[in-house]
Amino acid sequence: MSRREEYEVKTEKLLMPVADANGVSIYDVEYVKEGSEYYLRAYIDKPGGVNIQDCENVSRALSEELDREDFIPDAYILEVSSPGLGRALKKDRHLEASIGQEVEVKLFKPVEQQKEFAGVLESFDADRITILEGDTQRNFKRTDIAVIRLALDF
């Protein structure tokens, strides 16, 4: 397990009781470096969506837990927010909850001279993701996908 993954797993464990106490669920946790700064991001959700007060309450409580445990030696910025409408579907639980919904798939390399596809998420397994693009069923290797996210429909 990489250092990044270790920090994410430990943070998620600390976040579980905080999320429960605040009536929200954990969507994702990520530890990333952007430029010269490290960010620890916790994405939370609840039916009807989270508001600024939810984010503030979770941020304060999580910050206290992180200070108490102090397992990340680097300076970092803690951010707590909603995953947003066009949320990335990173984990199997995200994909499972999104079956039947419109998604956008971006690939690392073009397939049929195209790197971006949109369609209804039909199924997935450990190796592949299947979408229905109009009447065409498309299968993608998960290792070929740069990002898959819910499509924004305005």
Short description:
The chain has 154 residues and is of the alpha+beta class. The protein has three helices and eight strands. The chain has helices spanning 3-21, 52-69, 92-97, and strands at residues 25-34, 37-45, 77-81, 102-111, 114-124, 128-133, 136-141, 145-150.
Task: Describe the 3D structure.
By secondary structure, the protein is α+β, with helices and mostly antiparallel strands. Helices cover 28% and strands 41% of the residues. The protein contains three helices and eight strands, in the order αββαβαβββββ. It has helices at residues 3-21, 52-69, 92-97, and strands at residues 25-34, 37-45, 77-81, 102-111, 114-124, 128-133, 136-141, 145-150. The strands form two sheets. The chain has a five-stranded antiparallel beta sheet with strand order 7-6-5-4-8. Strands 1-2-3 form a three-stranded mixed beta sheet. α1 (3-21) crosses α2 (52-69).
